[in-house]
Structures are given as C-alpha cells and as structure tokens.
Amino acid sequence: MGVTTAKLMRDWDGPTILAYGFRPFFFGGAVWAALAMALWVPMLSGHLVLPTAFDPVSWHAHAFLFGYLGAVIAGFLLTAVPNWTGRLSIVGWRLGALAALWLAGRIAVTVSAGLPPLAVAVVDLAFPAALAAVIAREIVAGRNWRNLIVLGMLLVFLVGSALFHWDAARGAYPAQGHGLRIGLGAAIMMIAVIGGR
Prior knowledge:
Elements: H1 5-11, H2 22-45, H3 56-85, H4 93-110, H5 117-141, H6 148-169, H7 178-195
Helix pairs in contact: 2-3, 3-4, 3-5, 3-7, 4-5, 5-6, 6-7
C-alpha cells in the first residue's frame, strides 16, 4: 500500500508551519499584507523612501497583487491540488524552499533600486514558475486534466508579473500597464473558476 497524504504529514517532524501547503503561504501572506500597508502609507506621503526601483503606487500594486495574492493562490493550490489529484502534497523542506522563493521575491522587489532589473525579475518570477512546475507535475501525474485550466491561469498570472517587471525596467508606469491588468484578470478568473465549483 502506498504512502497517503495524511501519513506523509503525520510523519513530518520538522516545523509545524511546513506540515501543510497552506500554512507558510497564508501566514506569510497575512504578515506581508500588514507590513506592506504599514510601509506604503508613509511611502505615499513622502515620509519613507524604500530602496526600490518602483514608484510608491507601483510597488504597492505589485506587493499586493503578485506578493500577497500570489501567496494566497499558492496556499490554496497546494491544499486543493492534492484533493483534486489524489497525490501526495508537498510537505517539509520542499515546501519551505518554495516559501523561501516567495520571500526572496518580496525582498528583491523591495530593494530593487540597487539591483539589475533582470536579476530582480528572475528572483521574483522564480516563485510562480516553481509553483507552476509543482502544480503541473501533480496534475499530469494524477491525470487530472480538467484542472489544466487552473495551471493555465497560473501561467498567465506569471506572464502578468513578468510584464510588470518589463514596464518597470523600461521606465514606464507599471501600475497602469498591461502586466497589472493581465495579472489581475488571471487572479479574478482563478477565483471565478474555482469558486464556481
């Protein structure tokens, strides 16, 4: 008999936060939302200047759409996909590595003024790309083809973030660019499709 998801989670004896897919991302997303809001208000009023290459409104838009919502999407998918596919969920240090990629993206964008734009984009996009790879592997291995649409929307979300970085790198105003609209549209579609079930 194979190892069940429940057994895999029970056998994990490391930090509790890495026992379920939603834990590091829902917790991290909540902390990030509070921190980003606390930073953005003084940024917008001119009382705080972060070492970011993004203007205050664009930093805020990216922090919440691709930072906060990206974490929430990850937490949900890493909980739902094992239920959809009947496959083992990602647990332990592999989950921790995925959460570290998300955190690295938040740090890279926040201190992006001192980094090459390509490096910032690569660090930030590593998380949604890795998440998409994990989800794709589970859907294909579990032959759960009806959920390829969710993977497709996640890839569109990644493209939106990439275009947001492209706008920032060429000196445009990313908060009014196509990347933000594409990312927001993909997130709304994910909510509509999954919520509609």
